[in-house]
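PROTEIN FOLDING TASK:
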Amino acid sequence: MGLGAGGRSVSILYGIAGIGKPAVAKTLAERTAESNTLGASFFFSRDEDNRKTARWFFPVFAYHLSRYTLDYAERINDALEQEPDASGLGTGAQLDSLIAKPLGPVLKEEKPLIVFDALDECDKEGAEGILALLDCISQTPRPRVFITARPEPHIETALNECRGYAHFNMQDIERSIVEGHISNFVCPRIAKNISEA
């Protein structure tokens, strides 16, 4: 199943530890930033307090999107005037006030890519919540989302609840290609398939 196949808006790259998933996510984020199609990125890390839970995910997500498009920036400014403490709300309320409502009208004109790496390094509850909440963004078209993660049971279970996602396994690529040609081989194919979503 190819990434972005059949118009799916959520794509996930699975891989075991040390196989190069962060390199793919970083390269994809850099390349889409150069073409001004990167809406936001977030790199989880269990070694950093502000990157191992979902607590700051949506505020950072909103900040990046506000830099992506002036239309969204104006809408998020209006949202924050109405709800100044939005960043301190629960993740469901954050998604609604900081992302879903302001982003909805923007998606009619724009199709930003959202990249987040190492979702498995977010705590279990946060990772499950992020996937469930992202699936609740019902506007058409939905934003394109690219995720990397280890194939851990709670990630796969949560993704199975999502509608319309595609997955790709780095283990399906020959080891020599993974080690020596991630940027040249994997990233162009991911970018191509995501752009067709």
User: Anything to note?
Assistant: The beta strands are 10-14, 38-43, 113-117, 144-149, 165-169. The chain has a mean pLDDT of 78.
